[in-house]
Design brief:
By secondary structure, the chain is an alpha+beta fold. The chain folds into 2 domains: about 1-45; about 55-220, no CATH class. Helix content is about 30%, strand content about 25%. It has 3 helices and 9 strands. The chain has helices at about 1-50, 125-135, 155-165, and strands at about 65-70, 80-85, 85-90, 100-105, 115-120, 140-145, 180-185, 195, 215-220. The strands form 2 sheets. It has a 5-stranded antiparallel β-sheet with strand order 5-4-6-7-8, covered by helices on one side. Strands 3-2-1-9 form a 4-stranded antiparallel β-sheet, with no helix packed on it. Helix 2 (about 125-135) runs parallel beside helix 3 (about 155-165). The radius of gyration is 31 Å and the shape is elongated. It starts with a helix and ends with a strand. It comes from Columbina picui (Picui ground-dove).
């Protein structure tokens, strides 16, 4: 009798073990199926998601070009932003922007950032700005964006130096106009990269200031 009981107990144990293993296998299979299905859905979502280009521009730049995107300041609240090759050079978040004209200098061959500065054209002095413009080396890409007011202290000499970088709008830049520009030291033609919106109380988006101007593009790398 004892032997018979032992056989029954062993049989029940083996049957229980078999049932449990079957259940766990099914659950494991179901979980694996769920994981694979989710991976397939994620892959499909990734394939339909539009690609992201450097600085968030709308299309990829050709080879030997630098991608950039920039925006002027918004009234006297949000500072301008300058991004080159996916690197934010100037912004309110970086805490390196200020009232007036914000300038970023980039090496035209390597894309390396050379300098970032802002010059107060409302309460400041234009002389340091003129000295800075004169010191820019040939072959440098120059980005400029206004914040609050970038024109009050500008004189004819400063405007001429900026025009020599390829700007056409600088001669008409007025009090609290919004302006973004990308040119170069030693450029032989007028730059295609410039946006300017006049301060006009009838059309201003903000009280006393026009809307933000934005610009993006691809700058050819300087060749020897």
């Amino acid at each position: 009798i004892g032997a018979a009981k032992l056989v029954v107990v062993v049989a029940i144990f083996l049957l229980t073990f078999y049932v449990i293993s079957q259940v766990f296998e099914i659950k494991m299979d179901a979980n694996l199926g769920h994981i694979f299905a989710r991976s397939a859905l994620d892959a499909a979502a990734r394939s339909t998601k539009p690609p992201r280009y450097k600085c968030g521009i709308s299309k990829a730049c050709p080879e030997k070009h630098f991608a950039f995107k920039m925006a002027s300041g918004a009234a006297n609240v949000v500072g301008p932003k300058i991004c080159v090759e996916d690197n934010v050079l100037m912004s309110g978040v970086k805490n390196n922007v200020g009232r007036g004209i914000n300038v970023a200098l980039v090496n035209g061959k390597t894309g390396e950032t050379l300098d970032t500065k802002f010059f107060d054209m409302w309460g400041g002095d234009v002389a340091p700005f003129i000295d800075f413009l004169k010191s820019i080396p040939d072959g440098t890409i120059v980005f400029m964006g206004t914040y609050d007011d970038g024109a009050t202290k500008l004189n004819e000499e400063a405007r001429k130096l900026i025009a020599d970088l390829g700007s056409t709008s600088i001669t008409n830049l007025g009090f609290r106009d919004n302006w973004v520009f990308c040119g170069g030291k030693g450029i032989k033609t007028k730059s295609p990269f410039e946006q300017h919106i006049k301060n006009n109380k009838d059309t201003n988006k903000y009280e006393g200031w026009p809307e933000v101007v934005e610009m993006e593009g691809c700058i050819p790398q300087k060749q020897d």
